[in-house]
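Hey all, quick one. A colleague (J.T.) asked me to put the iron/sulfur cluster job into the tracker so the inputs and the structure tokens live in one place instead of scattered across chat threads. No bug as far as I know, just bookkeeping. Sequence used:
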Amino acid sequence: MKALALFSGGLDSALAIKVIKDQGIEVIALNFVSHFFGGKNEKAENMAKQLGVQLEYVNFSSIHTDILKNPVHGRGKNMNPCIDCHALMFKTAGDLMEKFGASFIISGEVLGQRPMSQNYQALEKVKALSPGLEDLIVRPLSAKLLPESKPERLGWVDRSQLLDIQGRSRKVQMELMETYGLVDYPTPGGGCLLTDPGYSKRLKILEQDGLLEDENSNLFHLLKIGRFFRFEKGKYLIVGREE
Ligand code: SF4
């Protein structure tokens, strides 16, 4: 039995992999790469090594920019289109299942961790937005609080060994990681760059100027590294903060 994992390299997705892997299930960790998160990084690689799983980078930047532009389910507080973004990750992972010979998908989502995108309805909505996969998504950290999935029903995964974590605190996850001896993970944060108010404000200006397109992705990257001044549509000054 093999599973694909949505893997940011952080605490929750690492723990989700550990819980499944401890059942003797092979896991392949997918790190999604967009203009705003993911990509080759030492932390994710170290964690994958500690977990003993294969790490694959999946670049979906272009299609991610499309959902950023038109998020059917709206955005969070900033530019983050979390519900559509998660659904896109599941869909993309679903498209890769055959290639990797995987039977189901896991993620480190935790019930109630984010008020907008990880409440019960949002988690169910993300599943419903992943046609054909609804029943093949397992969320090991909160599984006992969620409806049973096909892998649990058919005994591919032992539901009794899954967890019932909920809420915003990361205390339980951190304690479990310590028990497992997995200590070197990034400090749990609030999400990707699109959840950052300052960055979102600058990106919003590009959106208002009609430039939120994949072909302008060099601008998305420049906004990360310099001070940003707008003169008029399409005319900007970006000043490096460092040398
Ligand atoms: S925080 Fe960023 S990466 Fe995570 S679901 Fe939201 S938009 Fe996607």
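Adding what we noticed when we looked at it: The first strand starts at residue 2 and ends at 6. The chain has two domains: 2-180, 193-232.
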